[in-house]
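Handoff note, outgoing to incoming analyst
You'll be picking up this chain. Sequence as last confirmed:
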Amino acid sequence: MPLPRGLLEQLKQLIPPLNGTLHKGQSGRVGVLGGALDYTGAPFFASISALRFGADLSHVICSPTAAGAIKSYSPDLIVHPILSPDAPTLEVKSELSSLLSRLHVLVIGPGLGREEYMQNYARMAMGLAREQGMFLVLDADALFLVGQDISLIKGYRRAVVTPNVVEFKRLSQQIGIDPKAPPGELAGLVSKELGGVTVLQKGASDIISVDTTGENADLAASKLKDEDGSKENAKETVEVDIEGGLKRCGGQGDILSGCVGTMLAWGKCYEDGAFGEGKIPASRMPLLAAIGGSMVTRTASRRAFYKEGRGVVTEDMIPEIGKSFAEVFGEDAQGQDKGKL
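Most recent structure output, in case you need it:
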């Protein structure tokens, strides 16, 4: 099903211009919080995908046990090994708060794991991000944390959650969604119960839904207090059924979170006036970012699978992100209409 033309045009408005008017950082500064002893690949995939999608800078906030490996994967990533289990909590909080103030979006979950100290740092980061009005992407074990305490993001409309089939079922049960509800309505019901958080339900086709009509939606808590409340009751579901690869790699969700994160970072730059006409409200950014990230990720999956077949791995998708972006949004949006060497 083709994406409605109006949505595609809105998405294109969030793409920073490649005309020399922006300085370093105004095309997005992305943070990924995750990475511990056993998990170094996931935060790498998320953060490098953010760069390949088009972010200017990509930071990884991780445990010291993961930092060396992540640094060795790419010199393009900025790695902050501040999440030590032995560090004083107030010291980490101060350093983390300072770091987040320099970012446009925070992706929490890739490589997070369920060790208590990492879960506590994720909880801390969510609170700091909300205080600063940051956009958030929550995936993997960040969703496990939210399921334990939905107050962490309840009512925060600058957040996107990206559950896979198992994570979505668990989260739905944890917040009391009727499993007998029509499948196409479940993502909207989860969004409503979470207070207008955008839900990207991954599957054979991706269902992206936002419902802010419930009592839990909170403009002030979302740092959207200047929005017109009379126009903010939204209920919208979009299905992205662009062809993907026939084999789903284990790290594809990490690539998706990085792509959605970059699109949200662009949304923040747009909101701050770095580019664009400012006509798209900040409250709409999470839905648009989820759609754009889904479209590009699924296209990259298809392109990688066509080349590698059954042996495709997540790493094969990374070189396809830029080409997939051009396929979805046009070569002019990717800057590939300026001539090639």
